[in-house]
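Quick one: sequence plus phosphoenolpyruvate SMILES, need structure tokens.
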Amino acid sequence: MSVITAPSLDNHRIAGFSPLISPALLRYELPAGEDVAATVTRARTDVVDVLDGRDDRLLVVVGPCSIHDVDAGLEYARRLAAVARTLSDDLLVVMRTYFEKPRTTIGWKGLINDPHLDGTYDVNTGLRLARRLLLDVNGMGLPVGCEFLDPITPQYISDVVAWGSIGARTAASQTHRQLCSGLSMPIGIKNSTSGDTADAVDGIHAAAAGHAFMGINADGLAALVTTSGNPDCHLILRGGKSGPNYSATHVESTLDILGRAGLARRVIVDASHGNSGKDHVRQAAVVTELAERIARGERGVTGLMMESFLVAGRQEIGQDMVRGQSVTDACMAWDTTEALLTDLAGAVRARR
Ligand SMILES: O=C[C@H](O)[C@H](O)COP(=O)(O)O
Ligand SMILES: C=C(OP(=O)(O)O)C(=O)O
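Reply:
Sure thing.
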């Protein structure tokens, strides 16, 4: 007599499950010391003070489009930390330290997902490299900013992140808005890739409320997460398919939209992406234009984002890669960045 067994109904398209280190274990291996905690705590407060105008400096989130080489990232951080210290009376500098890349279709998804850049997806190594780098950069007294993409990632690194972002491709996502509502730092939400700001405005609204959703706890176990809401979200104008949106008119109308929605009038401008057509040379021109406006008294823009690495441009992942050049969007070179930071600091002084 043959035994009839029920056919397997799930996992038909799953190629494998592999163990992941727990957030608690990673934090135990790589704890945040007192110096790191002081940098993070201070920067989170300072960012909100700048956004709300209690601090008249300019927030500048600057760094590589993505980190793919820890050593080059650290060299960049050392250079930036020195300039950030020198200009700290005028600029609040946060290093863009992005480990998760949202792709339009497919492509390398960042250091956490694929740290060896070869499709081996050694996520445990990616998590360790990312957290180690965040500790090292904070240890230089330089706070860091990350985009949060995978809803599990924050448990591993968010304690050492001073500023966060939700990207243009996820601004409308309920999962990401819920995530924001529980994050401990101010979060910039980008306008959609179309250029429309409505999803970001709704996102800021949704993230300010408390939510209950499924997630993981520090031990990596499934948990019902209940949050109290994040009042420190703000809008990032990044341009889009409809063109750039960093003009004084765009900024003013966005502030009005936020005000009419009963939300804080806080806007920062991303000089890259849709505002530069992903052209790093154009990006420098956008920053220069914004610096001129700030020097003439523009107060609507409280912060700027810039994509910059050691070497200008971008390259494909492969053999003989150029050290310190982006493998995602084109970045401005270090020298250009340093000169622009100096100009922005001068603009802030002129505005005073
Ligand atoms: O900032 C990075 C990119 O603009 C974003 O990840 C989308 O990149 P892609 O269009 O090359 O996939
Ligand atoms: C992916 C990014 O930007 P956006 O979401 O604006 O495309 C980014 O800042 O790295």
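The CA atoms of residues 3 and 329 lie 57 Å apart. The chain is about 35% helix and 15% strand.
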